[in-house]
Design brief:
Layout (H helix, E strand, L loop, with lengths): L1 H47 L2 E8 L1 H5 L2 H12 L1 E8 L2 H9 L5 E4 L2 H9 L3 E16 L12 H10 L4 E3 L5 H12 L9 E3 L4 H11 L3 E4 H7 L6 E4 L6 E9 L9 H12 L1 H9 L2 H4 L5 E2 L4
Parallel strand pairs: 1-2, 1-3, 5-6
Antiparallel strand pairs: 3-9, 4-7, 4-8, 4-9, 4-10
Length: 297
């Protein structure tokens, strides 16, 4: 009888030990998965620790095209940061960065952007996307520029004394326009050349109402074309490439600069998920993207 009891006790002990060991093994196997989960959520947790207001100085094309109406809510959803967007010409946006009056910049004047980085007024400059510029004008095309090169088109506009409407606001688009006139060997002036001093959307409306030509980014034109009496007349020229970068204003310039939020916004703009949103923006409505993502390259 004692032998049977001893055997029973010994068997129970073995079963209990096996149970304990299997539990430890299961815990060890589960541990790597837990660590992996922590890694994937660490970035989101870090973003959720951000707070305050982020001042974004950007070109009017990102606002007028509607792109920021899609991207800003996504960024605010991922963080506790409220974004204040100031849509001005790129020249003004860069001035704001130099003066420490913004936290982050989204602009499209590469040569001037590089100067800001060289002066250490801006840091962490990253390529985001591109689209292109176009010459648009009256559907009847009185100057006969359709299908011409940019230089040929500008010469024809000048020779025919047709109206050309310029933004005249030191924006990225205005800088590009002035460079194109210079390459064509023309200094525009007189009644045929009128400056609005306004953003791309307003300049397109003025040109449409007055039957004039203008240079625009594709995104803003496509977003507004249903309300414009204009056609695309010159496009596809290599000179018309329009490249956008995002960059932080150097947080060392002022204690008021929200450097952490600015860094998070730069990372957000070049994140593959955001780049996918950028590449799909406009396709459903216009049949083509308004911007082409470049950070993923």
């Amino acid at each position: 009888m004692k032998t049977n009891k001893s055997w029973l006790v010994w068997t129970l002990c073995l079963l209990f030990a096996a149970f304990i060991m299997s539990g430890c093994s299961a815990e060890k196997e589960a541990q790597p998965a837990s660590n992996k989960e922590k890694e994937t959520t660490s970035a989101a947790t870090e973003n959720k620790n951000l707070s305050g207001e982020l001042i974004l100085a950007t070109t009017t094309s990102t606002q007028d095209s509607g792109l920021l109406d899609v991207l800003i809510p996504l960024f605010e959803e991922q963080t506790d940061v409220m974004v204040k967007t100031i849509a001005v010409g790129t020249g003004k946006a860069l001035e704001m960065g130099k003066a420490g009056e913004a936290d982050v910049l989204l602009v499209h004047a590469p040569a001037d952007e590089e100067k800001l980085v060289e002066s250490k007024d801006a840091v962490n400059r990253q390529l985001v996307m591109h689209n292109d510029f176009m010459i648009v004008g009256p559907k009847e095309d009185p100057a006969g520029v359709k299908g011409k090169t940019v230089q040929e088109a500008l010469k024809k506009i000048t020779e025919s004394d047709a109206l050309f409407v310029s933004r005249g606001d030191d924006s990225g688009t205005h800088k590009k326009e002035l460079a194109l006139w210079k390459e064509a060997g023309i200094e525009p002036s007189g009644k045929m050349y009128q400056e609005t001093g306004q953003g791309m959307g307003d300049t397109l409306k003025v040109a449409s109402e007055k039957g004039g030509y203008t240079i625009t980014d594709r995104g803003t034109y496509l977003a507004l074309k249903d309300n414009l009496d204009m056609d695309i007349l010159v496009e596809g020229d290599d000179r018309l490439l329009n490249i956008y970068h995002v960059m932080q204003v150097n947080p060392e310039k002022s204690e008021k600069i929200n450097g952490d939020a600015a860094k998070a916004f730069v990372e957000f703009m070049i994140d593959p998920d955001t780049q996918k949103v950028i590449g799909e923006f406009g396709v459903k409505e216009f049949g083509e993207p308004l911007f082409f993502p470049d950070a993923v390259k």
